[in-house]
Fold each of these.
Amino acid sequence: MLKKRIIPCLDIRDGRTVKGVNFVNIRDAGDPVELAAAYAEQGADELVFLDITATIENRKTLANLVERIAAKINIPFTVGGGINTIDDVSVMLKAGADKITINSAAVRNPHLITDIAREFGSQCVVTAIDTKFRGNGWFVHIDGGRTPTELDTLVWAKRAEELGAGEILLTSMNNDGTREGFALSITRETASKLNIPVIASGGAGKMEHFSELFSGTGCSAALAASIFHYGDIKISQLKEYLYNEGVPVRI
């Protein structure tokens, strides 16, 4: 049986790790290089780095910071934010990323997914989807959650897979930073319709939320930020808890 992955996320703004609630009310959470090293030491399965203002500021991801983090860790490293071209991907991979994640750029130019997959392999392409429940369904948002679209989340996730995405990073904007638990329904639906791994993000507040996620959905991994950044839960403790709950994890 494939092991479930625990993935801390570094949301980066102005070179610092930050965290908000529902994509707003951003506050400082520490030095990203120090946090990355600590998470690798604690047993994180992977690490995600998201330059959360690169797209709206119309600039590239912070390659130098990516390089400094990559030098401190020995686990798979995914980088996103401001990636719009094959050249951007190449820069990040040379800086030490193992995978890249694209969100707004993929919505605006879906064939970017295919182009990256052809050049570097599907395993390199993580399509991030920021989704929000509005009215009667879950819809994709772009530009760091600032711009709503009429794109149905499930339809877009399936199309991203067909275009060549190797994984989906699904973040519920409704749950993000609330610490009230993951969005189980949309995660379950998305995972059930895809043949590629789904990483669930948004809402982790206690260890029970992770066991609920893994037992109640078909997702492959759980991504969290604030509970790790502020020391509420150590990754090693979480994994021991999950193992005792019967969730297959790497100890």
Note: Residues 5-244 form a domain with the TIM Barrel fold (CATH 3.20.20.70).
Amino acid sequence: MHYEVKFPVRYYETDQMKVVHHSNYIRYFEMARNGMMEAAGLPVEVCENEIGVLFAVIGVECRFKHSARMGDVLTATAAVEEIPMAKLHVKQSVVNQRGEVCAEGTVTLAFLDARTYRPIRCPEPVARLIESRMND
């Protein structure tokens, strides 16, 4: 399962040197992850309200490779390469319009019961959807 979204660097995301502040890459990762789930037919609201599952970020690994700057158009990607059991591992990247990787990493999510906030295994509807979209 793969998704990408393009967007311009916005002024408020940069520092005085017109370089994207490092904290924004985590936001870019989230934008791509949420877009991936929505494009797959399981937006966050449906997961929470209809399936009863919350996605809790339990780990973020991010390696910074190249500075994104004001004026750049970035592409944030999210990819799931394995059917989750207890955790969902999402490979993520941010690339500029020249094809330079600005940041890459992995976000790990746990599944929580929306009523109790207790950890659960991946709900069957989520696992089935990911399995059906593995080659997308």
Note: The chain is about 25% helix and 35% strand.
Amino acid sequence: MAESTRRDFLYIATATMGAVGAAATVWPFINQMNPDASVLALASTEVDLTPITEGQIVTVKWRGKPVFISHRTKKEIDEARAVKPGELPDPQPDEARVKKGREQWLVLVGVCTHLGCVPLGHQGDYDGWFCPCHGSHYDSSGRIRKGPAPTNLAVPPYEFVSDSKIQIG
């Protein structure tokens, strides 16, 4: 068995210091790829539904995007349910876009699926949302009905934390 020498110690010490130096150099580059703290702060948000009157659409911010919260009327719900999913460009029943027993509350990411514009509420041919940038029309369930948008407005993950509060995200 070979005996350790001072030279072996110097090789090991140099390699160790080189590894520590390389890690210290690389760490800032890796760390800068983490999400900004402001984005992490918006990972979830609670919204009080109490002040939202029937027929009103409120916009809140979640993860830097607008989120529409619509307190739908009975007429809006009935109109959305009357549409057969097979007639839609992106077939999805209204029941799949809301929480059971809370059909009056519709929560949507307010970004047009065509090129990312923000649609306007209670407008368009279907009294839902209308994107003025390129003419996409969404119904009162946020489903694409006409225009260049390929898919429905997205439904973010959300849950009711009480009868009058939801948590998005």
Note: The longest strand covers residues 65-71.
Amino acid sequence: MSASAEMPYFIKPSVNLSSTEKESLYREATQAINANIDDESDIVLKMVTINCLLKTFLPYYYWVGFYLVKNNRLTVGPYQGTLGCLHIDFGRGVCGKAASTRQTQIVGEVHALAQGTDHIACDPNSQSEIVVPVLDEAGELIAVFDVDSTLTYSFDEIDQRFLEEILNRHFAHKK
């Protein structure tokens, strides 16, 4: 199945925010996430709740989800949006780079990257992206958290700070 450039009927186009609006909505989303999953131990329930609430609060989120580490590569896990890539090798694309380096990746214009190696075009509507490594309590990589926008330059250090805090709190800290 190949990706289409036509916006799916069930997806709203992204809307970028000012820094002030972004900070405010992240604070609200973080509060809602913490209220719902602070006492939760099931990893899948945490992932689907994080996806749902961030996509609900942040209007520039087009695709949001987790790629899980399985068999020495990334495999699509819980997500919201259009069809994601099913498997991604470590080091390939933005998700694979985040997995292999264990560092958050922010890309302002994904189509400016070398296609097939530096970027994997699962959906041509995605224009910018942030990918955050997800570590467990032992510091092992268990997933990457991927967010795409239909607009360029949607993601910045505000996104990085809030996403790293949310993911660290709910996956890396011992309860």
Note: The chain has one domain: 19-172.
